[in-house]
Each structure stands twice: as structure tokens, then as C-alpha cells.
């Protein structure tokens, strides 16, 4: 199966390759033109340096002949060294110049200047006045010839440069046109690839979303989705088609059972409309429990007793003060109901310090928190759910912890639950709870009962479970 990621990577590599080819060609053409320009300018600069140095050499020789100062001799030696290096450079770059015979003549003048200058320096050092006077004159003449020849060569170079400039301009225009075509081609290929890839991804998704909308509106008879590609989109489409077929079958089965379910719903509605007296319901449950016991249905009898105890306790006033022993008893009954309901899916544990059971807390404090752990924590888990209640003493306080290994809650939700702001509704009963009492209700009653704001703390991370801790001051125990 070709993955979308592989297609995108291939397209990206092709675009990078095209971009690098275009960039390399621009760099190569620019370097080539720059090299041609630099060669021409190097020739101009070399001829100018030779002309300047020839004049300097004559001035150093003439000054030494007049003043006999060794500083001029040293200056002449430096000038001679430069002239020699210029001669070698001119020989190396002879192929760059338009008139090679003229260059050879020019080099001959440079060497003659060096030889005549050396001869003049020797005559001066030996004191041969007549000889060095004639030699100085010869040096001046050769220096003048070099400067005149330099101007001639510069004229020739400028003429040749004009031709070179026109050639480079044409070449530059050709390179620019080719570069423009290359960039245009790259952009065209990029747009074409983007259209192909985006279309191959977006079109099936659009069709899939349209079909999903039809399914949400109850239409399961839409046209089948066909995807030619063999990637994740194809897998998604096949899965959707299978889901749509199975949902259609399920809907048909539900319609077939609707007639039978309608009678049951009518009976449930009539039952809900008859608001039974709670004491009558408790008495009835007790009778059912005794009948189950007499019929040797011990498990059923035990479960009915747990339900009866939980329902009777839920009717006690929320403002009443009860002992931890009473609260723990109700929690254990609730654990029994849930263990019967979920069997091996959920495990309930209690770790109780018996010396703490005489401490008083508000009625219906622990059971709503335990139920909250079941409903929002471990009930969605298919296996391995754990809810644990632990009670112990710690430095003048009773520490009550209700821990689960369920889904956990986010920091934002935890902050909302712990805030003291009132909810935007007047009904304080929590939906989904057997007693209708939620975490915020318990927290509010603890704050009023003990006069502290941090009696309840929440430690939770998403997918790592939740621990709710109650810190109950022992000195605040109250009598029932």
C-alpha cells in the first residue's frame, strides 16, 4: 500500500531537486560571467601597475644617482622585484590579451628597463659619472616607451573588452531566459503535483463527508464510494462502507423489535407516572429480600438488601452529621452493588483505620465521590478497573482518599471543579448519580461544615486515574 506520507515525501524531494537544479544553474552562469569580467579587469589593472612601477623605477634610479642615498637603492630593489613579478604575471596571462606580439614587445621593454636600471645602479656605485649619466637617460627613455606602450595596449584591451562585453551581454540574456524557463517549468510541475496530490486526498474526503452527512440524516442507501488509490483514504472509505452496511442492518433489526419494545416502554412510563411512597418501596424490597432468602437465592437477597440500604440512606437530610462508620457501611454496600454489576471488570478495595470511624462528617459525603469515580473514571474501562477507599490518621487529621485508575480529568476541568463559583443552574443534583449529588455539592457542604476552603483536593492526570483526598480535622468532631 502506498501511503500518503510517501507520496508527499516524493513530491517534496522532486520539488527540492528542481529547485536545486535551477539554483545551481543560476550560480554557474553567474560565476562564469563574473569570471570573464574579472579576467578583463585583472588585465587592465596589471597594465596600469606596470606603467606606474616603470615610472617609479626611473624615479628611484635617478634619485639614487643624484643623492647616493641607500634608501633610494632599497626602494629601487623593491620596485625591481615588483616589475619582475609583473613580467611573470604578464607571461602567465598572455593568452588573455588581444595582441600577443605587442605583449612580447612590451615584455622586452620591461626587461630592458630592469637591465638598464641595474647597469645605472652599478655605474653610480662605482663612481663612473659619464656611464651612469648615459644610463639614466636610457632608463628614462625606456620608461617613457613603456608608459606609451601601456596606453596603446589599454586601447587594444578596451576594444577587445567592448566585444567581450557585448558577448557577455548576449550570454547573460540567454542564461536569464533559460533560468526563467527553468523556474517556470519548476513552478508548473509543482502546481501540477500539488493539484494531483491534493485532489487525490481532498476529493475522496469530500465524497466521504457527504456520505457521512447522509448517514447522519438517516439515509443509508447512498451510492457506494469508489477510490482508485491504494492508501489510507482507500482504507477509510472501505471501513465507512462496511460501517454503513452494518448500521443499515442494525436499523432494520431495531425496527423489527420496535413493536415489542413499545409495550415495555408504555409500561415503564406508567410506572414512572406512579410516584410510589419510598417507605412502601423499602418495605417491598425487604419482602422481596426475605422471599429470595427463603428460596435460597442468597446472592439476590444480599443485593436487594444493599439497594434498600443505599436508597434509605439517600433520603437522610444532607445537613445531618453522621459518623465515618455509617458512611463506610454505605460505601461497602455500594461496592457490593457495583461488583455484582460489573463482575470481574472492576475491583473495589477498602483500607480503613478503625480508630477513625467515630469522626463525624456530613451525610452522603463518601458515596457520591465513590460513585463519581465509577461513572467518570473506571466504568468506560473494559477491564482492570480499580476503585479504592482508604482512611487513616495523620497529625490531628483524618485523611480520606478515594482513588481510581480510570480516565482522569484535565487540569482545566480540575480547576473548574475546585473553583468556588456557582454553577449556572439552580438544580444542585448531579445527573447520572443514584443520589443526584455530585462532587461540587459535596465540596460545598464540606466547606460549610468545617469552615475551611481546602478540605477536598483532587490529584489527577488524563488516562492515569484520579485521587480525591478529604482532610478532616479531628478536633471538629460533632455529635449527631
Automatic annotation (TrEMBL):
Q: Name the CDD domains on file.
A: HAMP
CC annotations in GO: plasma membrane
Residue ranges of region Disordered?
417-436
Q: What is its main location?
A: membrane
Subcellular location(s) per record: Cell membrane
* Substrates-to-products reaction catalysed: ATP + protein L-histidine = ADP + protein N-phospho-L-histidine
Q: Which PROSITE patterns match?
A: HAMP, HIS_KIN
Q: What GO molecular function terms would the record report?
A: ATP binding; phosphorelay sensor kinase activity
Q: Which SUPFAM superfamilies match?
A: ATPase domain of HSP90 chaperone/DNA topoisomerase II/histidine kinase, HAMP domain-like
Q: Identify the EC number(s).
A: 2.7.13.3
- UniProt domain HAMP: residue ranges: 199-252
- Keyword entries, A-Z: ATP-binding, Cell membrane, Kinase, Membrane, Nucleotide-binding, Phosphoprotein, Transferase, Transmembrane, Transmembrane helix, Two-component regulatory system
| Residues spanning the membrane | 175-198
Q: Which Gene3D superfamilies match?
A: 6.10.340.10, Histidine kinase-like ATPase, C-terminal domain (3.30.565.10)
Entry protein name:
histidine kinase
Give the organism, scientific name.
Bacillus aerius
Q: What is the lineage of its organism?
A: Bacteria, Bacillati, Bacillota, Bacilli, Bacillales
